[in-house]
Amino acid sequence: MASLMHRFSSLTARTQRPIINSLLNFRQVHVLQKKDIRMAGRAKKHGNLAALALGGLAVAGGGVALCETKWGAEYDPDNHGPYFPENYEKIKIIGGNGNKKLAEEVAEALGINLMKSRTAQYADGEVMVQLDENVRGKDIYVVQSCAAPVNVAIMELLLTCSAVARASAKRVTAVIPYFAYKHHRRGAPISTGLKSRFLWSASSDFAKMLEVVGVDRVIAVDLQRPGQGHEACFFSPQIPVETIMTTEMAAKYMAKRMHFPRPVCVVAPNSETIKKARKFELKFRKRVLVPTSLGAFLPKQASSGPVAPTSKAFEFMGDVEGKDVVIVEDLVDTGATCVEMARQLRAAGAADIYVCASHGLFGPGSIERLRESGVKKVVVLNTLPLPEGQDWQGMVEQIPIGKWLAQLIKTEHLRSNDFDDDLEDEDAEDMREL
After folding, report:
1. What's the short name of a Pfam family annotated to this entry (predicted)?
2. CATH number, domain with residue 290
């Protein structure tokens, strides 16, 4: 083994590069990971001498100028630029106007540039999409959040996916951090004039549109669970739908970044979010030094659907007197629900009130409305851009999810189950800091 490493290190950098390219094509070593010693150990266990040689060179630095940067990008000794294995070069990221900043964050985490494309609107409002790079045989990921104006964002997503599919892309994946028409996910009854009704949901129509334009796979963030109008149920079995569940991520973020001097009560706005609030509370209690509890707004009588907190037919179950409160929501739009909950929680003796939601739509006047209600801070994911024209400074804080989406894209592209160690080791790091 030492002889092999010595002979390899004696070669020039230009001679070493094609050998490294061949070694990287082995299934065990798609890209060099940060844990090079662990990689070499796995290669030795499987009897892969070539992979072991590469792992040993990475550890010993045997004349090969390879160093880890981000998400598997290595250093090329000839051109001093990002270097990727052949199959990894086939990834292309297209950023939609719905959240261009998040798309750039994903591309940066992957160590690549956004694909060149143009999107514009004609005078009558029609959307035009132009691809400025060749996508034939490539693995394309279209990152587009359905931000306001939502219908324009959806049309841009559909036309982009259609253009990519028609241009002979190998696979088209729609990365939709915020899946639109969540307000309609439970379905609305359509009367037939008889004693029967059809159930219809705009979310199902959106899913069918994505299938028709040639989308092969969907990646989203915090889709609802089965029984709550799960958007994934609207897709056919031929379209895999993968969602990142961020409840525990948000709990870790708030416990690490914010100070809670008093006991904390985690509140669910309705019966459908109790499981989500419970998961948040279980993860949160492990990272704070104060007692935690769970509360919820529940209907007084049985109901076939969710009951808004503004209704007189609900009551709060829990104890918030002298405690800080974290309201766990799916999304914040007008803020009316959170404002009403904050009013009643204040009346019950709550101290500081926080809102933690997956998506921040923040309609006109919503942030000011939340500030006046006594909510101290609203924490949301950066699935949607913060609205212009509203004073959100000091009131809204966003959790970045670009690296999580990038890792999921990388894992899916390489057909690997290796999730980055840095993401998994954050639990231990958080505990050490506490």
Report:
1. Pribosyl_synth
2. 3.40.50.2020
* In contact, 59 and 69? CB cutoff 8 Å: no
Q: How far apart are CA 67 and CA 81, in angstroms?
A: 11
Residues 6+ apart with CB under 8 A from 347: none
Residue 155 has pLDDT above 90, yes or no: yes
Half-sphere exposure at residue 242, Cβ-oriented, CA atoms within 13 angstroms: 12
- In total, the chain counts a number of residues equal to 434
Domain count within the chain: 2
Tell me whether residue 195 is one of the annotated catalytic residues: no
| 8 A C-beta contact, residue 175 and residue 409 | yes
pLDDT value at residue 286: 93
Q: Are residues 234 and 364 in the same domain?
A: no
Helix axes 426-433, 247-257, angle to 10 degrees: 20
Quick one: 251 and 230 in the same domain? no
**25 pLDDT higher than 90:** no
**Residue 284 within any structural domain of the chain:** yes
Domain span at 227: 91-244+406-414
Question: Whole-prediction pTM value?
Answer: 0.74
Tell me, yes or no, whether 171 lies in a domain. Answer: yes
Catalytic-labelled residue, pool 34, 101, 116, 300: 300
Residue 113 confidence (pLDDT) above 90: yes
Q: Supply the pLDDT for residue 90.
A: 84
pLDDT at 305 over 70: no
